[in-house]
Write a structure and sequence with these properties.
Number of domains: 1
Strand order of the largest sheet: 4-1-6
Shape: elongated
Radius of gyration: 15 Å
Distance between the termini: 15 Å
Number of helices: 0
């Protein structure tokens, strides 16, 4: 993921979430204060059948299958444009 702001200097609180098919709570993919631009390569911790984190293995990519992904910015000047690029590997 790549996020940038049009003036190359403003700061904003960027949050990228998705809405799961089951349940109503949004899941954070990435969230951070961004000044100018930022690159994220988020991963998720894998879980066992009981839902507990498997800390002995490598984290994996987010597995999305048609869920709605939302990009929001707060705390930023209103006269700038934020851009978000999401690279999807199918």
């Amino acid at each position: 993921m790549y996020v940038s702001v049009s003036d190359g200097a403003s700061t904003g609180n960027v949050q990228i979430t998705y809405a799961p098919y089951a349940g109503s709570t949004a899941v954070n993919i990435a969230t951070n204060m961004v000044t100018d631009e930022k690159v994220w390569r988020p991963v998720t911790d894998r879980t066992g059948i009981d839902g507990a984190a498997l800390t002995s293995n490598e984290p994996g990519k987010f597995g999305l299958a048609g869920e709605t992904v939302t990009f929001t910015v707060s705390g930023s000047p209103t006269n700038v444009t934020w851009t978000w690029v999401l690279v999807i590997d199918e």
